[in-house]
Amino acid sequence: MSTQVVVLYHSRHGSTRTLARHIARGVESVNGCEALLRTVAEFDDHQHEALDPVLTMAELKSCDGLAMGSPVWFGNMSAPLKHFWDQTTSLWVGGDLIDKPACVFTSSSSLHGGQETTQNTMMLPLLHHGMMILGIPYSEPVLHSTRHGGTPYGASHVSGHNEGLSPDEITLTQRLGRRLALVASQMQGLSTI
């Protein structure tokens, strides 16, 4: 039985989607773990063709772990992602996400654009659902020296110069995905005992 980790994201210009793909690579570097790349529905005038399917409540309910990503919108998660979580009351009432591991990731156009506040706002609904939040520990050497994205709260990217992810950002993002997958697979093993 494989461990399924949902990598849920909202991305307007592609940077958060790129982070999601690196999280997924980290997840799938763990034997027996599968990453499900999913997005949320748009509800404004920025309709575009989604490159990944929209997450269903059934997929969220049955996942073994969750990575969630959003661009920074005024120091907060994006409205479509927040709207998605506002629809999860039935999972909250049922306790369906309790004790599942989760992590967050984000992208901003500037280094001080609100990455850590956005990561914190993304954690709030996860905590209300009883999920266990994972960050990036300082045992990751790159976290001490990065001049780009990456925080102890989760993976991040500074996209201001329209460059791709830096090597540090890639390393930290993939390591976070791997950490999430390892914990999810360990938790799944405990639930079968």
UniProtKB/TrEMBL annotation:
Keywords: Flavoprotein, FMN, Oxidoreductase. Its EC number is 1.6.5.2. Pfam families: FMN_red. Its cofactor is FMN. GO terms for molecular function: electron transfer activity; FMN binding; NAD(P)H dehydrogenase (quinone) activity. Residues 5-181 form the Flavodoxin-like domain. SUPFAM superfamilies: Flavoproteins (SSF52218). It comes from the Bacteria. Belongs to the WrbA family. PANTHER family: FLAVODOXIN-RELATED PROTEIN WRBA-RELATED, FLAVOPROTEIN-LIKE PROTEIN YCP4-RELATED. This is NAD(P)H dehydrogenase (Quinone).
